[in-house]
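Predict both folds.
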Amino acid sequence: MSVDPPASAHESAGATAIASVIATPCQDTELAPAPDNLEQIAMATLCLVNQERARNNELPLQSNSRLGQAAMSHSEDMVAENYFDHVAPNGETPLDRIQASGYIPSPQDGYTIGENIAWGTLSLATPSTIVAAWIASPEHLANILNGAYRDTGIGIVSAAPASLADGQTGAVYTQEFGVVSG
């Protein structure tokens, strides 16, 4: 007969957090983004991302306002400047945006960051379709499931770059991921 060692308090808390995420249904996942519901859309998106993490035994991400600021500025810029890319036409990178937000406190701090972007029109702009597309993409899924990440910020604009949207209503999503080790 073998006896398993008792789980540490940290492991128990993690298992409890994962079970809680899995047991809690996500709300508003089929809402189309509009100027008056973007906070609901961001919460639905984070819920779906955290459910995918939980299904893969990863802890949920916590919202971080500085990463949210970096994500929102990138979504706004993509719409205003009519492009869709991680690097802005002026050369600004995800690291530039995240550093400008103050998320990384000092150049001496270690960090790991990542970014997912997406856009869609009409029914392809809902949190459920955006997160499903990320999950179907190995590179995006790798960011979602990266166990090093602890923080996230989501920025959503209820418009899409004009050159891509063909006049249809839509949305641009940016999700920043990070962890800082001082």
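Second protein follows, with its predicted structure tokens after the sequence.
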Amino acid sequence: MIKTFDFEVIPVVNVVNEILLDAKRRRASDVHFDPRPDGIVVRIRVDGVLYDYATVPNKFKQTVVTRIKIVSGMNITESRLPQDGAIKTTLEGVDLDLRVASLPTSEGEKVAIRILDYSMSVKGIESLGFTKSNYDKVLTMLKKPDGIILVTGATGVGKSTTVYSILQRLNTPQKNIVTVEDPIEMDIAGINQVKVQPNIDLTFANVLRSVLRQDPNIIMIGEIRDTITAKIAVRASITGHLVLSTIHTNNSLSTIERLLDMDVERYLLATALSGIISQKLARKLCKNCTKKRPTSQYEKNLFKKVIGLDIAEVSTAVGCEKCGGGFLGRLSIHEVLLINREMTDKISNGVKKEELRKLVYENGDVKTLLQDGLIKVASHLTTFEEVLKLIELEDGNSESQLTEALKTPAKTTLPRPVVQTGLKTPSLSVASTT
């Protein structure tokens, strides 16, 4: 159900506050203010799915956008260029840490707000949903004194959560840890964190050169975006530093290829690379309303072929008062590659892609994203449909082949908030931009 606000009676300040508070309580990761000819459509993303939430009449369209720009530290007189801002405050006892971005469109300025949630990072690596074998491989990577560990995946799949969880594990008084980030998403006591500022030439590459003179044990780079950063990161990892970073690739094999495409020397990459953690996020079934059903013949065959198990039942989404759509939260699907001596030699010697694929996926004790996803389907944590929506099958089969097997579609009602609240909220404070 779309929420209605009486803009003639309720101040815009209170409406904006209520939207942000309610989005937080509904476990939303993003709030979108999408301009339309007749106003603004407000949409919230919960468990990876966008839902229509409210509408703003055309009369109050600019006022709402201006309010958000003011409290996020943006220039309200500039509407022709994209801008970034931040909001960090507490409303009604709820801590809000938001990243705000504006974008000029043909219908007016679009504003997107990312709601940062550090709860999973604070809980540690063991709370991230790794299987026992993958968890053990991650711990093996972290025991090495040097090398580079990469967390990979698309935008919004929890790479930062995984990286911060790893930093929490590594953070001890005996180690000097320096991070280079854009922006700093989570403040961690005992760690030296640097925010890059390209406008004053404080780039990833320039900061990294200085960091190496700060006697670090561990360096975290927010993201490897270009060739210069990649080369410095790799060279830092072979000179006695443990380097942790993220990169936008889909799996272990494509990560190695991407770094080679960035002109990182093969012998350096082979020596430096310790491990790769690739991940995606799937919606997690609500424990209060999940329903089991028999597997179809196609599903049985796929389970047997991919993970070697005979699975008679899987769970499907139903929907109840607590979840609203059959899903409650999200879980990670992982592919963890721990580099061994044979892989190091093959990468250094310029092995062909097909041979490297065989080495990684057939001889490398690696569970693919599909295998890990199906293991979690078999454990009744998510649905068959969710996994195949995220991961392409190698044999060319597609999600459409499961239509007959998936007879119970999940409802698409807006997830309920944890706590209902009124509109009496204090004004937001402007976040510091320093």
